[in-house]
Amino acid sequence: MSGHSKWATIKRQKGVADLKRGLAFTKLSNAITIAVKRGGGITDINNNFRLRLAVEEARTANMPKDNIERAIRKALGKDAGNVEEVIYEGFAPEGISVIIEAATDNTLRTTSEIKSIFNKEGGSFGKIGSVSYLFLQKGMINVDKKGKSIDELFEIAAESGAEDIEESGDEAIVTTSFGNLSDVREKLSKKGIVIKKAGVVRKPLTPIVLTDKEKIAHVQNFLDKIEALDDVQKVYSNLSSN
């Protein structure tokens, strides 16, 4: 009986993992489709930087090549006209500012789902511009340290036009201006730096520090529920638990 129970647990865990993987692939496919649309229909990653970032992220997530190519073809088809990028803003529980980036073919559905979570979890759904001024769009590049010290990487990053760099385990995170991401990424790569991930992020100007574990858990639960929605691409907040 215990063996059966163990097998059931394994199957259940695999089912949850498969669902998460499928959801991740859906989000990545939508990101690729949006990148092609926003890039004027350009499907060459060498001439469409946003598409290049989306494809690289998909490859990092082990998304099959066929799925990537299908997402690109979809962007050129008539169905792509229905998929659009939507930004939502508001306040999570405890007054935490939130920006949500979504890609959807039905804005009414997506808006309704997001509003429902705000209402149920004690958040406050806001208008466009209500919290965006509290964030700055920045380029962020995760690089493999490959035995280099942070001082060595700092020098290389500075020479490449980066704004800042910080250690994160075996990686270093390079920050650039929003418009300089592509240029800095190329310069780092040419200098032999291994790029693990690159993209545009929204950094909070003034993070809000919470120390109460229950409050942190409440906010995190809210953010997790938003992020789990099919149409949601990325969620940013000014929460800091440090």
**Number of distinct helices:** 7
Strand order of the largest sheet: 3-1-2-9
What's the multimeric state? single chain
User: How would you state the average pLDDT, rounded?
Assistant: 86
Q: Report the span from N to C terminus.
A: 45 Å
* CATH homology superfamily name of the largest domain: YebC, transcriptional regulation domain
What Rg is obtained from the alpha carbons, in whole angstroms? 20 Å
Note the run of SSEs as H and E. Answer: HHHEEHEEHEEHEEHEE
Helix/strand class: alpha+beta
Identify low-pLDDT runs: 1-19
Main sheet: strands, sense, barrel: 4 strands, antiparallel
CATH topology title of the largest domain:
Alpha-Beta Plaits
The count of DSSP E runs of length 2 or more, i.e. the number of strands, is 10
- What proportion of the residues form beta strands (DSSP E)? 25-35%
Q: How much helical structure, as a percent, in the residues?
A: 40-55%
Mass-distribution shape: globular
The level 1 CATH classification of the largest domain is Alpha Beta
SSE inventory with pairings:
Blueprint: H1 2-38, H2 49-60, H3 65-76, E1 84-91, E2 97-104, H4 107-120, E3 124-126, E4 135-144, H5 150-159, E5 164-168, E6 171-177, H6 181-190, E7 194-204, E8 208-209, H7 213-227, E9 232-237, E10 239-240
Parallel strand pairs: 8-10
Antiparallel strand pairs: 1-2, 1-3, 2-9, 4-6, 4-7, 5-6
